[in-house]
Known about the structure:
binds manganese (II) ion; mainly alpha
Amino acid sequence: xxxxxxxxxxxxxxxxxxxxxxxxxxxxxxxxxxxxxxxxxxxxxxxxxxxxxxxxxxxxxxxxxxxxxxxxxxxxxxxxxxxxxxxxxxxxxxxxxxxxxxxxxxxxxxxxxxxxxxxxxxxxxxxxxxxxxxxxxxxxxxxxxxxxxxxxxxxxxxxxxxxxxxxxxxxxxxxxxxxxxxxxxxxxxxxxxxxxxxxxxxxxxx
Length: 206
Ligand code: MN
């Protein structure tokens, strides 16, 4: 069964003014669809086509060498964006909720300190990539700046919350002003979904 691009769970213009409609249309309809199509092309007819992509990325070295780069990039792109659409919402913003709120305070001292460190990762990521809040057993919550479409799953981490800082995610509206995009992004963060992912991570990984 082929991987399918998940529909956007809100309208293309729903994240305005933080993220503009045209960016969302191209990002979801072209970039995300492109990663999905290329992932399917790379895995077509192999046993990995039917395996959760997280598992495949965790065990990338078991793939034929000539498929590893395509799956790392496009499998990561498929997975990362699938998370990204859901951890944003037109009714997002505010502060963390539930168990995640408590864990952020315990790990980073306060929400403001977390925000500062997360923003530093997002703004400081050289070139294309993502900033992630991840979870791993023994490690707990931690921040991770990852290049290109490298997914937290590559490192055995569960993605809780991430921001796409590829230029395709913000350039039409913000041009070279990535920090303005990062600041505006907080207004659309879906904290309930991030909390749900955190609880799911702990349930799955311990
Ligand atoms: Mn993207």
